Amino acid sequence: MTTEPRMQNPAAVLPDIAQAVNVLYKAAHSAGVPGRTRQQAPQTRG
């Protein structure tokens, strides 16, 4: 079963959260969260 995201990129809709999303993504990576799990989260550039 595959779950579709409600928003493709919440950080694009709410640009003020882009930095927080990036920090969380980097923390998940540093903590060893599997790549497949991290791919489910939105990624931003900036």
Short note summarizing the structure:
The chain is mainly α and 46 residues long. The protein is built from three helices and no strands.
Description:
This protein has 46 residues and is an all-alpha fold. The chain has one domain. It contains 3 helices and no strands. It is flat, with a radius of gyration of 11 Å.
Kindly list the characteristics that best describe this protein:
46 residues, mainly alpha, 0% strand, flat
pLDDT < 50 stretches: none
Count of individual beta strands = 0
Rg measurement, Å: 11 Å
Q: For the report, how would you describe the main beta sheet?
A: none
The SSE order reads: HHH
Count of DSSP H/I helices: 3
The backbone outline, from C-alpha atoms, is flat
Structural class call reads: mainly alpha
This entry's quaternary arrangement is: single chain
Nearest-integer average pLDDT: 78
What does the secondary structure layout of this molecule look like, with pairings?
Layout: H1 10-13, H2 18-30, H3 35-38
